[in-house]
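Figure 6 in text form: structure in, sequence out.
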């Protein structure tokens, strides 16, 4: 755990330095803020790209090995069913918490924002119009494994890997054993790479935070103080619910899990990318005692179907925009919106700023001006920090819970 603590401390220091450097540039050199932001953001880009480089091969090798080693199709179906039940329940709870709290706190009625035009949200408005059932199917089923690898389409890689793993499991040990052994070695080599790449995380955090503070400064927090306060309060309630359920399932081991994933949580918060911590999360969950077959099967699925923070934000932001425009929605309409969000949000996992795209599409469907998304764009980066960290927590709990239910959670931590 010593290395883990050093990384955690280094990220905290980088976070503080990033805020300080970005604030100094914004105050003393405002004319240089844009070019400074563009250049220092490269540190974050380097880190994210290093992580993205290993996500596809890691998901593919660990998932294939995990399923091939299961060899029992009934076990695969059982684990998959438990995981999907968790994902659906957690998504509904997250959406409901967002809906309930935005109606109670009414941030849109209190916050006084000027109605903006749609120019700032033009790209999002275009993206949302193209989403359909056809796009969902295309997004889920790969046309080519190599294309899925090249574009880091996790859901498509998961679909191919499950089919390939099941085929290997039914091929017979004589044929499958050498392939499984090779993929197992590759997976361990990639996990070794994770250790090296994670030491770039503090630089990535520094670059990401300094860039956004240099451009926006601290004034933005005054304008959106009520919106941010209410959103993070809602996130806090969601965390409380998730941790309570986690404690009921894991008992005191929940605190050990939180210690294990503190660095991934902080990296996701700082870089606004839950994807950036996927390899590290795999490593830490296996060290926590989760069976590697369960981790390699559930975690990639969770990254596509179990985004608790993003789900809560969708109902919260959609109703907030309606409140800003003075549109009162009946309870029946809001419940319908919740169910629509539940279905449509599963279709664009991996799409950049996916939750915003879904919000725009939902607003259009329910007669809320979709250009209202421009109202929350200025502060979205900071909301995304909370969303990303919550997504990581939700997936860590889901994987640990299913491992426990399957009797596949070791009491003593493992070393990977």
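Output sequence:
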């Amino acid at each position: 755990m010593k290395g883990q603590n050093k990384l955690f401390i280094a990220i905290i220091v980088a976070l503080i330095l990033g805020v300080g450097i970005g604030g100094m540039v914004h105050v003393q050199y405002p004319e240089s803020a844009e070019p400074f932001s563009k250049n220092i953001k490269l540190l974050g880009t380097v880190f994210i790209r290093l992580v993205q480089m290993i996500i596809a091969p890691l998901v593919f090798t660990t998932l294939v090995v995990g399923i091939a080693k299961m060899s029992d199709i009934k076990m695969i179906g059982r684990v998959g069913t438990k995981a999907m039940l968790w994902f659906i329940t957690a998504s509904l709870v997250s959406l409901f918490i967002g809906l309930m709290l935005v109606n109670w706190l009414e941030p849109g009625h209190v916050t006084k924002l000027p109605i903006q035009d749609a120019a700032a949200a033009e790209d999002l408005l275009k993206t949302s119009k193209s989403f359909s059932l056809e796009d969902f199917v295309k997004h889920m089923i790969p046309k080519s494994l190599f294309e899925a690898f090249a574009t880091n389409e996790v859901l498509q890689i998961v679909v191919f890997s499950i089919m390939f793993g099941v085929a290997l499991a039914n091929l017979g040990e004589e044929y499958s054993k050498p392939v499984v052994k090779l993929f197992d070695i590759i997976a361990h080599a990639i996990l070794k790479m994770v250790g090296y790449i994670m030491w770039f995380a503090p630089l990535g955090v520094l670059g990401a935070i300094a860039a956004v503070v240099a451009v926006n400064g601290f004034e933005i927090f005054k304008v959106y103080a009520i919106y941010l306060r209410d959103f993070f309060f809602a996130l806090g309630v969601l965390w409380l619910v998730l941790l309570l359920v986690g404690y009921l399932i894991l008992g005191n081991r929940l605190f050990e899990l939180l210690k294990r994933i503190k660095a991934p949580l902080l990296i996701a918060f700082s870089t606004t990318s839950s994807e950036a911590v996927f390899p590290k999360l795999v490593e830490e969950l296996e060290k926590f005692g989760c069976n590697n077959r369960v981790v390699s099967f559930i975690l990639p699925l969770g990254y596509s179907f179990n985004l608790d923070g993003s789900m809560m934000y969708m109902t919260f932001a959609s109703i907030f925009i309606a409140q800003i425009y003075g549109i009162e929605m009946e309870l029946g309409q809001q419940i319908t919106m919740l169910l629509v969000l539940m279905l449509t949000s599963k279709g664009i996992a991996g799409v950049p700023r996916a939750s915003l795209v879904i919000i725009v599409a939902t607003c259009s469907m329910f007669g809320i001006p979709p250009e209202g998304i421009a109202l929350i764009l200025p502060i979205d980066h900071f909301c995304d920090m909370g969303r990303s960290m919550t997504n990581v927590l939700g997936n860590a709990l889901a994987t640990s819970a299913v491992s426990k239910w399957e009797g596949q959670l070791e009491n003593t931590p493992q070393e990977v």
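Caption detail: The chain has one domain: 1-406.
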